[in-house]
Amino acid sequence: MEKCMKPILLGIVGVLCALISVAQDAKVVFKSHPVFQRYPAELIKETRYNMVRSERVAPGDSITFLLRVTDPEGEYYRLYDWGALNVFVKPGSTIVIDYNDRERTKTKFSGDLAAENAWLNQSWFLSYQMLYPKLLTPQTTYKEYERRVFSNADSLKRVVKSIFLSKKFVEDCQCRIDFMVISTLLNYYQFSAQSMQRELSAADFESWNRDFKLAFSKVFLKKARHICKLYKEQEVLQYWQTSQALMNVVHNIEPGFAGQIGYSLFEEEYALMQVLNDVTRLYSPELLDFPGKVKDSVILDIVNEHIKDKRDLLTGVEAMDFEFKDMDGNACKLSDYKGMPIFIDVWATWCNPCKALAPVFHGLAREYKEKNIKFISVSIDKKAAPWMNYLNGHPRVENVLELHSGNKKFQEAYKISGIPRFILIDKNFKIRMAFAYRPGMKALNSLLDLVCVE
Question: Is the pLDDT of residue 17 over 60?
Answer without folding.
Answer: no
